[in-house]
Specification:
- This protein is α/β, with parallel strands linked by helices and 511 residues long.
- Among the domains are: 180 residues, Rossmann fold, CATH 3.40.50; 96 residues, 2-Layer Sandwich (GMP Synthetase, Chain A, domain 3), CATH 3.30.300.
- It contains 15 helices and 27 strands.
- The strands form six sheets. The protein has a nine-stranded mixed β-sheet with strand order 2-1-11-10-12-13-14-15-16, sandwiched between helices.
- β1 and β2 form a beta hairpin.
- α2 crosses α6 and α9 crosses α10.
- The longest helix has 17 residues.
- It is globular, with a radius of gyration of 23 Å.
Length: 511
């Protein structure tokens, strides 16, 4: 199936149901579909042709859904720009993708003008006018362009194997790469989410807190095709999130571990969210000790998903029933098991399955995989082999198929010939009562090659010396313990909430 068919069918089935809201702005499914058709026709009338890449430079807003669907209806390829990225990264993405057109919000007018000056081939350019700004010279007002365009669906050749979007990687270990996802892959992600997180009923609400340009955006389609309601927050603020979830009576919240930790600190009350059925977290590991705190507060409503840009959202899943506090809590350290329609293996350097407890690389196969990296055939061949995506994530697997992530392949620490997994050390650090967050990297050492260094953020009001933290770890980690600890006010994170360990390694100043 292609996304165009799924969107059209949902608009027919649930025309009057609220599909998306952000603050006071809200649209029904019928309104989303009509506006998406108008946008598709406006872009086609402006010279865009199927296969052209269109850059989307918008904050979280109610219009994001119609933009995504409108591009799909026109056979155009969405290139979402994260508004938190610096201009140089936005410019790199525009040039790498060969973007043909741009849709941006008025508040970003100054940056947009600079980008347009450096990419003169961008046309048409649509500006979503706001109090902060409107369209510049030779640009179109977004609402005016929609009003003047036809509301009938465009007739362009689009199929399951048509390119749907270029989803750029977070670039924590180098230049971002454009992951090519087809309509088939996007639909497969939607159906996988509906399969594992069922049922999603008409009118049900999900609160989306992350940038729609990244992980949260994958939930727009499955909730739309179900007649459900995506409640979008423009910015994440812990207290405001709790208020919105309570007032809107949302059933599901999608967030990243950093956000969940901040909700715990924001004074969330037990029983505050009586309609809440599920909190979906992912994108980075959740420390077990913080996970236990969340379970004590919210109950067994937490579910973890593990994916990456090359295999979006769906590699493994740890559902609510595996978040147990009453029996064996070891599963809380795992990333779960393979999604029901996905194959996951942990393999050695020769692509042979490892035995339980052995370390290997996670590989995945399914209908949702990328087609490759945009204009990077050599890098595609490294990652996409024999139908599998090789994730570069190291892990162990137990007898029941639960996967335990240890860290990226290039993050593994080799000290005196001994392999140390950063995740193992970080979990112990999070057990210290004064530690709020921790990240571990390998740093050069003349005797050992590398030693473990920990960067630690203390809880508000807590006190602990580096040597005390090292002593705490000794009996629990032995040779894997940190040899140095640096207390920091915060950990460096990218626009998607992931810790940038390359910055931590670069910040190391020696013994």
């Amino acid at each position: 199936m292609d996304v165009r068919y799924l969107v059209e069918r949902a608009a027919r089935h649930y025309p009057r149901g609220l599909a998306i809201s952000c603050g006071p702005v809200r649209f029904t499914a019928a309104q989303v579909y009509e506006r998406a058709c108008r946008l598709a026709n406006a872009l086609g009338g402006g010279g865009c042709r199927p296969g052209d890449r269109v850059a989307v430079y918008l904050p979280n807003c109610a219009q994001y859904m119609e933009v995504e669907f409108g591009l799909a209806l026109a056979g155009l390829v969405r290139v979402s720009l994260n508004v938190r990225l610096p201009e140089r990264d936005l410019l790199y993405t525009l040039r790498d993708a060969g973007a043909r057109a741009l849709i941006y919000a008025g508040r970003y007018g100054q940056t947009a003008a600079s980008l347009l000056e450096q990419c003169p081939g961008l046309s048409p350019v649509l500006c979503l006018s706001e109090a902060e700004g409107g369209p510049g010279p030779r640009q179109l007002d977004y609402e005016a362009a929609l009003a003047q365009a036809r509301s009938a669906p465009p007739t362009v050749p689009v199929g399951p194997d048509s390119l749907y979007c270029l989803f750029y990687t977070s670039g924590t270990t180098g230049r971002p790469k454009g992951v090519m996802l087809t309509h088939r892959a996007q639909a497969a992600v939607a159906f996988s989410l509906l399969l594992e997180f069922a049922p999603v009923r008409p009118g049900e609400k999900i609160l989306l807190l992350q940038p729609l340009s990244h992980g949260s955006g994958f939930f727009l389609l499955p909730y739309f095709v179900s007649g459900a309601h995506s409640v979008v927050m423009e910015k994440f603020e812990p207290a405001a999130t709790l208020d919105a979830a309570e007032q809107m009576a949302v059933e599901t919240i999608k967030l990243v571990p950093t956000m969940l930790i901040q909700l715990l600190q924001a004074g969330a009350r037990s029983g505050q969210l009586p309609f809440l059925r599920r909190i979906i977290y992912g994108a980075s590991p959740m420390p077990v000790e913080r996970l236990k705190e969340a379970l004590s507060l919210f109950g067994r409503v937490l579910a973890q998903l593990y994916g990456q840009a090359e295999a979006p959202m769906c590699i493994t899943v740890l559902p609510e029933e595996d978040h147990r506090m009453d029996q064996d809590t070891r599963l809380l350290a795992s990333a779960g098991r393979a999604w029901r329609n996905v194959e996951v293996r942990v393999v050695d350097a020769e692509s042979r399955d490892v035995t339980p407890g052995e370390t290997g690389e996670v590989i995945v196969r399914g209908a949702h995989l990328m087609s490759g990296y945009w204009q990077k055939p050599e890098q595609t061949a490294e990652v996409l082999r024999n139908g599998y995506v090789y994730t570069r994530d190291m892990a162990t697997v137990d007898e029941r198929g639960y996967v335990y992530l240890l860290g990226r392949r290039d993050e593994m620490i080799i000290s005196g010939g001994f392999n140390i997994a950063p995740r193992t050390v970080e979990e112990v650090l999070h057990q210290h009562p004064a530690v709020l967050e921790a990240a571990v990297v390998g740093v050069p050492d003349p005797a050992w090659g590398e030693t473990v260094k920990a960067y630690v953020v203390l809880r508000p009001g807590a006190q602990a010396r580096p040597d005390e933290i090292i002593e705490y770890c000794k009996p629990l980690l032995a040779v894997q313990r940190p040899r140095s600890v640096e207390l920091v006010p915060e950990l460096p994170k990218n626009a998607y909430g992931k810790v940038i360990k390359t910055q931590l390694k670069a910040a190391h100043r020696g013994p």
